[in-house]
Design a protein that fits this description.
By secondary structure, the chain is of the alpha+beta class. It has helices at about 5-15, 20-105, 110-120, 190-205; strands at about 125-135, 140, 180-190, 205-210, 210, 215-225, 235-240. Strands 2-1-3-7-6 form a 5-stranded antiparallel beta sheet, covered by helices on one side.
Length: about 260
């Protein structure tokens, strides 16, 4: 028989006899099971305690953060209440700027018109009367004051009066091209040629953004006096103002959003 057989192991170790009652063995087994379960429960309780401590710390930190955030929010609300008058003022300024832009949307600065006319009128022609008519209002407004090149100013009459042809749609005629206003002149010159040069100069007047400001210059009359010793001619003429005559002051710039000066 070889030493690797089960019989050899039994012979070396000797016979084992369990003399303990079965009840004792069962109690020992139950005791070991209870000890194992207690150890597992203790480990679980330790893990749960550790988790509870970590979560409690996180909750405490979160509550502290929430308290700080509430304090910051309270400070911001108080600061907002302090700055509310500034916000109201900004809103009022914006509303005033919008209203100003609407008011000045169709503004024509007649100081610039008078400066242009003064530069256009030749030395041998002088104006005695000048009036302006706005096409949107249909009312005539006299410029008042001295005429640009000499003579005395008189109350103006609306364009179309004194034999001037009515507004037509023919290109180059008064009213063509949707003008925003019309100027009516009355004055005198040394000759018909001088008066004609004045009207031709209106045709090549100033431009703005590539658009002519003065359009549709028109002769109403040019007559020499009846007296033999009269060497001057009297005339009346008109010219229309295009949309380039608008000043565009205080309009909101499309790119920057700021009002133009």
């Amino acid at each position: 028989m070889s030493w690797d057989s089960p019989w050899a192991d039994q012979r070396l170790s000797g016979p084992r006899v369990n003399l303990l009652p079965a009840a004792v063995t069962e109690r020992r087994l139950v005791h070991r099971q209870r000890v194992g379960m207690g150890a597992v429960a203790a480990i679980l309780l330790a893990v749960l305690g550790l988790w509870l401590a970590v979560e409690s710390r996180a909750l405490r930190d979160a509550r502290q953060d929430a308290d700080r955030e509430r304090q910051v929010a309270s400070g911001l609300r108080a600061r907002r209440l302090q700055l509310q008058p500034v916000a109201d003022l900004d809103a009022q300024i914006a509303a005033a700027q919008r209203l100003r832009a609407e008011v000045y949307a169709r503004e024509i600065r007649f100081s610039g018109v008078m400066r242009d006319v003064s530069a256009i009128v030749p030395d041998d022609v002088w104006l005695t009367q000048m009036s302006a008519t706005f096409t949107n209002a249909g009312a005539s407004t006299g410029t008042g004051g001295a005429a640009p090149a000499g003579g005395t100013a008189a109350a103006g009459t609306p364009a179309g009066a004194g034999g001037q042809p009515p507004t037509a749609t023919t290109p180059g005629s008064p009213g063509a091209g949707s003008p925003v206003a019309s100027l009516t002149f009355a004055g005198a010159g040394l000759g018909h040629v001088d008066v004609g040069r004045f009207v031709r100069t209106l045709t090549s007047g100033p431009t703005k953004d590539g658009q002519r400001v003065y359009i549709n210059p028109y002769f109403t009359s040019s007559q020499r006096g009846q007296s033999a010793d009269t060497t001057t001619v009297t005339f009346s003429a008109s010219v229309d103002l295009s949309q380039a005559a608008f000043s565009h002051r205080f309009q909101v710039d499309a790119q920057t959003g700021a009002p133009t000066p």
